[in-house]
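Q: Could you predict the 3D structure of DUF106 domain-containing protein?
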Amino acid sequence: MPRTAEKVESLAREDGELLDALEAVLDVVEDEGTVEWSDVSDEMTSGQWGRLIEKGLLVDADGSGFVVDDPDGVRDALTDDEVSDAAADGDEESSWSSYDKLAGVGALGMMAGYSLPSIRNAIGGTLDVLFGPLEAMLPFYVVVMVLAMLTGLYSTLLQANLMDMDKMSEYQEQMKEIQERRKEAKERGDEEALDRIQKEQMDAMGDQMGMFKEQIRPMVWIMLLTIPVFLWMYWLLGTGQIQGQRVVLPLVGDISWQAGILGPLQAWIVWYFLCSMGFTQIIRKSLNIQTTPT
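A: Sure. Here are the predicted structure tokens for DUF106 domain-containing protein:
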């Protein structure tokens, strides 16, 4: 794929609206030879204008405005099916599906089980069919370790498959580039550039919201699967089946499972989080899975 087409497709994957901005700029250049920000300010944001410059598709014409680099290649790319598909994929990836929204509603509904015994008993009794035999064979501290490893495994896999690390990296890189240009403009006292960059930062807030949505999306599925596990452990302790069992924790010593350690956090919750953090790190390293943008 030619270099220009690669740049255009990259923009399409990042944000389909950037293609509309590029086409608006190209139309002005084809009619007038050059383009200024004022010519297209009604058709795009300053952030989109800056993104076209950053990508090298819009270049300075020796102080007399801007021109499109390789306009024929850009026009061909804009009509290319692969670029259109990339734009559609990018829009789809950045939005929540109806299943994601249902998962969020379900997770919120299950959270009521912490305060409503009827929900807690229903979920706990149902999951006891699955986890009850495990609890009957193993000490409770081992059961917690097994559940922590299980939740750590699916949490890592969900984050790896539902979070677009490339898109999140692009968001961070864009903000870093804006901050660097703002610093340079401030050093040379360019008030006009500072005003333009300030507008870009405001526009970039929408990108920050997109990154936030990317981070939250796997969390709703993790909560949907993890809250029932927590409710089962909560329910099990409430039935008295673990009555009398104790555990020796680092820095705490011998303590009962329902004793408070950190404020309202009981020993079993602290033990779960310790196991979960440890197993999650091991799983990520073992599977070479990255869950944070670079």
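Q: Anything worth pointing out?
A: The mean pLDDT is 82.
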